[in-house]
Design brief:
homotetramer; 5-stranded antiparallel β-sheet; 9 helices; 19 strands
Chain lengths: ~375, ~375, ~375, ~375
């Protein structure tokens, strides 16, 4: 029945509810010898944290991470790393509104039918707050990937119908606006659009694009544990994601093979390149040397203040207006969550690749 | 390093190469007491088999499945079911063309870098022929799902730019044309389009839609092993799939929350319904009672007879024209593969749900 | 590389070092609806805790467990249960003695070679203190087993050469002496023996016997995940255990089949019994309706104050006398750890059994 | 519910019944580049095969293994290796005797209660014949271990009360007698003893000892996936095994710490040794550089021709005499099964160790 454990060799076990005592993650399988401090993790957590702007929740979550185990004298020991984030903001609220009503677009109904009852406070385990634990674990995976020369960078590609213009693309610009958009013009348009959405007590969705550089060819396991199938699971496990595509993605269905196939070529130094990267860096489930590129579709935030028709758990048709402050869009805060899940998944498959050739094993064992 | 084992409680282990002695699958975790014959499985395999038409490979694959274990007196015994399909057509061909060249759009380069060498005969393990084993296992899962009242039906939604018209939708029509399209008009257009594609020695892609009815609410495990995240992995593990979306999918990013949220209501018999099914039957990773609906994007067949630029494994830039007969489109034959992977995944999660409540466990144990 | 996650459906992930901030466990897969309080867990933890007697460590560990997640309004919610025990006693000690020396009989050398360095404070992750997390998780499993009518009871069968006399056996007596022996006479002899051992700055080992009643036939998965093979892994994973045997165990090698085989018979009410229980309640890896009976051999505590020859990590042959207070025997405190690991393992296999028949699945799904 | 899949990175999936079409195993995770032929595997299978002697079954099983996939041009490709052994001897027999009766000491009753019915022909899945698949997979693991300098050698240590004399120990002698005993005198005594046992229509058990040389320190994962806990599960999963012990094992409970602890020392070349090997080569679950040594207890063959009391599946108390030829002892044929399971387990943990240090990962990735 478990679903909160993820990964094989770099394995994470997350826990915690929105309004419980806290949330956290245990990482089992982190190699020994990685320099790691709380600050390495806090950096990523701060990117997930609600901002001061009007497009994110005002609740002061704090979200200070603490390392409880697995690090000694500043380095990982190879044993489980337990990370905890205590909830600072647990004052008892009035949950009578949602305790007996299934909010449309939420997991309330699913949890109720599956488990017979549910922790309704702030959505309990199905709250987006759960992703803080993923981000904490992802920061550890990222640190290791960085040491291998691998960079995982995601950004907001679109909000509603507003898409970034790649002629105005600047990856560093993503940290200069509230929407993590690498295009300052698009960010301005998004601001205007979201003001209107908020005025209407409504919400919006968008697309996050993730690009990973430095991945050498050969990562990903044939058949079921492909690099793309594994990433797909990782990203779709993030609440509110309704789709994923790699490289050309759905548009690949509209071009022909001649257009879609990426030809290989050697440069003068016999390094291998591709003329294009329609594959998104993955062929047959294995990295092909190109940048890994995928896009994730996030639906509009389901929590909206407008009246909605739904049902109670006691058999009545009711109308609900969801009170309290809710992000009118989750995309901006989700960017670092996408990076986290991609990092964990990629690292896990790199570890899995280490026994793919008998030569690797002999080399390891001889030098033990 | 393994990647050919899939599932937790209904676990399959597939094996086999395109031009080896055969291919097969071992199913571990099939419950005892299911009536099962080779004919149950052959039905689905026949749907995957190349047809007599000009859009599918002419090779006579035979693909007769044999049950080697796990069935006694016509019923499953609860022990592993080994299914085997011997390759009938192993005559030694001339593979000199592709043995040293990495075909664009194929996994050749990935396998070579990952393993140091590869079985190049017909693509070896990365051939689409590998999916026969999935279909065989899927037929067993489907049989069990049917007994629970669950139906898994997929069809071709589009080929290139030709999309079916839902005003002309007839699910039974899908078996009347070579493209598994539930719209006879669209099938005619697709035929014309593919004739042109073949004439140009090119290939095309398309979109497969899958709909699953009869899934009760409560299936899917929170956080990582969600119903949609698990299906995403299952479907993206099929070669040539470049994207997946559930319900409104990518279009959900362009509407607002008020539009996207599906309101619940009770009918006069206190049965629960939704006013719409934008969620594709899954909320927070758990089935919500609506039909499960997803779409998978298949890229154009990478094997094309037109000349393409690529490289050899000995350092040369070369040009290749891929000889032999290849499907100009994989979509039609992939429909049953999508159904198979969806069936296996859904069944596995139904089993996983069985221990979600202490009452279920007590009820099971007391009646043991 | 991970090794701190255990179980499939009732899955636990433990963490923590002897002298770190604390230790804990995340349980994923606990069914919803189980009444659970910290007191349920504390009871078992108190049994593991060092006593006031002279045969257990004097350090005041406190070991107060806190439930951080997964319980709402007094019942489990089906989501991960995070349990934490903060270390109260972390004053900085002088570890210079053991930081550079590999203690004989300890994991120091293994950790050093495996990870390149180690948290030497109190043994770090390899300390027996790690078992507190197992006991906490085991208490949750035990609570569920109890509701099914299953009782898991272990006791000290022998210490050194002093064995309990089954003619004087009283299971309730085990809580009346410091050695958890169900025979008051044997406990007196053990006390005398251990006084002598301690005087010689030496240590002793012993055997723990575990008996589980109420296990219906049919639990355990054929071939690899047998009930006995799974229990063997569970018990051998406890530090200091060097062997396990079921039923007659090693003595079964000295009798013949006619003696060893347990005949079945029906009583007048058509209930099934066995004339004997030499199998220890398990045949072919599946419970046979008899009580599950096994014995675990614990080696003498490796930490002793007598001088021992060993090596430093800097290339020197050295002599070490291990200072500080150490239990001269671990058996008494290990009894509840044995129960915990047995409980977790058995419960996990009960869950696994739930999908063994198609009838169970239909019954579950129809009533969903 | 599955139980026929074993291992994490070197993962095997076995299938087959005693009197079905055949049996086999799929190995997923075998590294690429291993030279492998059917002869490599047949060698070990021949050691398991019933001999011509009077102490093993007379049935001519053939047991010729065929490689169906995963090997190309004489070397493993990194993809699943499917091995099959067709049953040659499937003539329909009269099973009326055992089809409705639960044989004492057998899994019949467990299978019946677990699955509702069972393949009773020759014991079905619970027949010792199942171990042929293990031996086939073990031969592949052994080949890889050999290339790392690791040798896995098991032998019969005792039969009934007849134990080998280590003063007369000659490992090569084990292949010169029908009992795989490395002591020719003991083998003679065993022959006499078994003649008597057979005359009485009875059976006997014995102990197999396994020694593994060449294992470097650092193998085994702390806490749950220890080297010894993993081996314990592997060995206890072999039918008829009722116990396992490592190093001094149960006798360690009778000595003191000073005796039991193995001191380390450097020799003049700064190589590390131990003064003794009471640990059996494993400390804290991690290899310590000494030979791995364990013993497995096999119960007497449960199939005996003497009359036994038992029950039918239709509610009657009955008496049964098990007809047909059955080995009066399984120990001799089990020796290679013990080696197989030990080899698979050890190799799997070696692979798991490869990501234990960040330096190993960097070294791998930089040289990719």
């Amino acid at each position: 029945m478990p679903g909160s454990v993820y990964g094989n060799m770099f394995k994470i076990s997350t826990w915690g509810e929105s309004h419980g005592k806290g949330l956290g993650v245990v990482i089992d399988g982190c190699p020994a010898g990685v320099e790691l401090s709380e600050n390495d993790i806090q950096q990523d957590l701060d990117r997930r944290k609600p901002g001061t702007g009007k497009y994110t929740t005002q609740r002061s979550e704090g979200d200070l991470v603490e390392i409880l185990s697995g690090v000694f004298n500043g380095r990982t020991t190879g044993t489980p790393i337990s990370l905890i984030i205590f909830n600072k903001d647990q004052r008892s609220k009035d949950y009578s509104e949602i305790s007996k009503v299934f909010r449309p677009g939420h997991a309330d109904f699913g949890f109720h039918t599956k488990y017979g009852f549910r922790d309704y406070r702030g959505g309990g385990r199905s709250s987006a707050r759960e992703t803080a634990a993923r981000v904490a674990a992802g920061a550890v995976a990222r640190k290791i990937l960085m040491s291998l020369g691998i960079e995982v960078k995601a950004y907001t590609r679109s909000i509603g119908n507003i898409e970034i213009d790649y002629n105005n693309f600047d990856i560093d610009e993503r940290f200069n606006n509230a929407f993590v958009m690498p295009d300052s013009n698009a960010a301005l348009k998004a601001e205007k659009f979201l003001d209107e959405v908020m005025r209407k007590k409504d919400s919006a969705g968008g697309i996050v694009q993730c690009e990973i550089s430095g991945v050498k060819p050969g990562i990903g396991e044939p058949v079921f544990d492909k690099l793309d199938s594994s990433l797909a699971k990782a990203i779709l496990s993030i609440g509110a994601v309704k789709g994923i595509e790699f490289g050309l993605g759905f548009d690949a269905t509209k071009v022909t093979g001649l257009v879609n196939n990426d030809g290989f070529f050697y440069d003068e130094n016999k390094n291998i390149h591709k003329y294009s990267n329609n594959s998104g860096g993955i062929l047959g489930g294995i990295s092909d040397g190109g940048n890994i590129i995928f896009r994730a579709a996030f639906k509009p935030t389901p929590s909206i203040a407008s009246p909605q028709k739904t049902i109670s758990d006691t058999g009545e048709n009711v109308e609900i207006e969801i009170k309290g402050r809710h992000d009118p869009i989750v995309v901006a805060r989700a960017v670092v969550v996408v990076e986290a899940m991609a990092s964990i998944t990629l690292l896990d498959l790199i570890f899995a690749s280490m026994s793919s050739k008998i030569d690797y094993i002999k080399n390891y064992y001889e030098n033990l």
